Amino acid sequence: MAAMPASAKGCIRGAAAGAVAGHMVGKGHAVLGAMAGCAAVHHHYAKQAKAQAATRK
Fold it and tell me: 3: which DSSP letter?
């Protein structure tokens, strides 16, 4: 439960970066880029939080 704020923060960062990258690719790709960026960065933060939880045990 402690990882939830980091996951949300990661999603926002990833969505912003993905939207910019998608916009550069072409018209209509900003939304797809935002979704992909959110998913990728959310996965990264979730994996990091899981690793930190394992080291605390």
Answer: T
C-alpha torsion sign, points 30, 37, 39, 42: negative
Positive or negative: CA dihedral 31, 37, 43, 45: negative
Could you read off the pLDDT of 7-57 as tens digits, one per residue? 566 788 888 899 999 999 988 899 999 999 998 888 888 888 889 888 886
- 2-15 b/e (C-beta count within 10 Å ≥ 16 → b): eeeeebeebbebbb
- The token pair at 15 is 């969505």
Cβ within 8 Å of residue 12, ≥6 positions away: 38
